[in-house]
Each structure stands twice: as structure tokens, then as C-alpha cells.
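Help needed: design a sequence for this.
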């Protein structure tokens, strides 16, 4: 489950990324989900040339021809890596996009037509395919309660994995429809939003789908929909977090990092306070004690150990 591993926090030393030239580059990228990979690609380039952002910007302004040759030299090195099967053509194009944006935001003109001729041919289509139902079942059988919810959300919505870290609880709502008397004809029935914890029905209403606000508040924001099965799994996952002491609010991450459910009850302390969210987005999640005695906590811990085997 590669996408789940990729959602874990990427610990990258970004102390090199500072200065006026870098601020112009960063300001040009509005979406945090896009800014993160662009910064990492630029960081990798700067480490290869052994310069800070301001140093490289100054070098390129004073001698654009030499900076251009340096970029072409790195592209030539990467072409050899492609031939050896160490990297893909898309990887090279990604870091070049970040470098080009950095230079353009600092008013540095390059002969990009010449530079792009050094790029290898990139396949315009992916070799990925939609997983079969049997493959999805195998993933769900092997996943824990968090993995089940994440898998069903990704499969049914079709959103990119990079959109998951920015999702908040307030971005998730359920769409319900009224159940007509004595029939199953659902045509021309109003659909309403609901955040009720009642999974299947709520006072004569049936769950139709879930709605996610992707990149909420951003210009590229849009809505995606998830299946009723994904809603059920997501609600169970959120309830699981509440049962173990997490104080979930509208601003809480929809998916957070993994935690030990037994330790969450046995220890009167804050768990994963600075790393609660997926990827590089951090939010403080407080676990609180519920006034239970040590004896009661141990009893519940033993029960959780038995229940965890079912997930």
C-alpha cells in the first residue's frame, strides 16, 4: 500500500530554504499540497550545486550562461541515471519545473528551449490501472481501521493522494435522501447534507454518498464524492479515534498518523502532539483522561487488544 506509506511525515531538513529569492518562489505557489513537492525538488537541486537560493540567484543573474551550463550538466548526469534505470524521465522534469519557476520569479532569463532539448522523452500516459474488486478486497482484508477508511476514500473518490493531508473533518459531510413511503423510487427526491453519526439512516433518510471539499478555500478547490461504504468506514475510524481520547473538532485532520490504542488509554499524557496529521501538515491533537481508575483502564485495554484483532 504505497500511498499510505507516502502519507507519513516526510522529515526533510529545509534550513537551506531561506532568503528573498526563495520567498518569491514560495509565494508563487498558492496550494500547500503543490508547494511541498516543489520545495523538496528545489532543495535537491540546490544541494547538488552546493548553493543557497540567494547565492544561486545571484550567480545566475551575473552569469546566466554559466548557470545554464550547470543546469544542462545536471540534466546530462540524470540522463545517464535513466539509462541505468535509477530514475525515471518524469523525475528529471519535476526538478527542472521547480528550478524554472525559481528563476522566473527572480527575473532571470534562460534559454529554456535549449535546456528542454536535453530532457528525455516522457511517456504521456501512466502504466497504472484501476484495481480489480478482488484486489480492493485483499487490501481491505489486510488493512487496519485507518487503512480501510483511507483505501475506500481514495478508491471511490479518485482524488490524488496529495489532497489527503489537507482534508479536515469540516470538509466531510454526508448526503442523504428521504425514503418514500412503501417504495424504492428515489427519483426527484431532494438530497440534503448531514453530518449525523447515524451511518445508514436518520429519521427516514438514507445515506446516498459522502462529500469531500478538496483543497477547501483554494482557487483549485473542488468537490469529490465517496461511496456509502467509504462513509461507513470513515465514520468508524473517526469514532475509533474519539473512543481513545482524541478531541476531534471541525479543524482536526480527517486522517491522522497511527497511534497505539492501548498506549492511548494506559498513559496519561499527550500522544503525538506535534505529528498528528498526515504528511507535513501538523495540528495539535489532545488526548484527555476520562476519570477512569487504573483498574478500569486495564480492563478496557485488554478488551481493546481483543477488538484490535478484528481490524
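Sure. Designed sequence:
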Amino acid at each position: 500500500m504505497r500511498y499510505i506509506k507516502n502519507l507519513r511525515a516526510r522529515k526533510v531538513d529545509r534550513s537551506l530554504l531561506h532568503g528573498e529569492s526563495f520567498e518569491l518562489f514560495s509565494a508563487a505557489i498558492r496550494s500547500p499540497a503543490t508547494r511541498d513537492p516543489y520545495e523538496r525538488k528545489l532543495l535537491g537541486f540546490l544541494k547538488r550545486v552546493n548553493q543557497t537560493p540567494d547565492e544561486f540567484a545571484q550567480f545566475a543573474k551575473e552569469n546566466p550562461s554559466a548557470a545554464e551550463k550547470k543546469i544542462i550538466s545536471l540534466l546530462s548526469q540524470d540522463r545517464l541515471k535513466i539509462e541505468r534505470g535509477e530514475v525515471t524521465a518524469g523525475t528529471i522534469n519535476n526538478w527542472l519545473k521547480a528550478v524554472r519557476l525559481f528563476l522566473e520569479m527572480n527575473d532571470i532569463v534562460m534559454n529554456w528551449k535549449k535546456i528542454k532539448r536535453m530532457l528525455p522523452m516522457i511517456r504521456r500516459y501512466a502504466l497504472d490501472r484501476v484495481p480489480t474488486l478482488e484486489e480492493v478486497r485483499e487490501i481491505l482484508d489486510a488493512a487496519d481501521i485507518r487503512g480501510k477508511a483511507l483505501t475506500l476514500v481514495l478508491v471511490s473518490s479518485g482524488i490524488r493522494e496529495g489532497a489527503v493531508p489537507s482534508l479536515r473533518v469540516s470538509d466531510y459531510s454526508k448526503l442523504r435522501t428521504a425514503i418514500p413511503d412503501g417504495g424504492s423510487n428515489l427519483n426527484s427526491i431532494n438530497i440534503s447534507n448531514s453530518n449525523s453519526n447515524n451511518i445508514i439512516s436518520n429519521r427516514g433518510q438514507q445515506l446516498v454518498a459522502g462529500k469531500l471539499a478538496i483543497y477547501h478555500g483554494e482557487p483549485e478547490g473542488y468537490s469529490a464524492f465517496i461511496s456509502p461504504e467509504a462513509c461507513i468506514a470513515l465514520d468508524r475510524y473517526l469514532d475509533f479515534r474519539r473512543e481513545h481520547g482524541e478531541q476531534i473538532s471541525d479543524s482536526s485532520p480527517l486522517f491522522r498518523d497511527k497511534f497505539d490504542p492501548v498506549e492511548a488509554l494506559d498513559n496519561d499524557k499527550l500522544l503525538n502532539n506535534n505529528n498528528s496529521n498526515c504528511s507535513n501538515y501538523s495540528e495539535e491533537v489532545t488526548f484527555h483522561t476520562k476519570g477512569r481508575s487504573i483498574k478500569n483502564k486495564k480492563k478496557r485495554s485488554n478488551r481493546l487488544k481483543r477488538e484490535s484483532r478484528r481490524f
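The chain has twelve helices and four strands.
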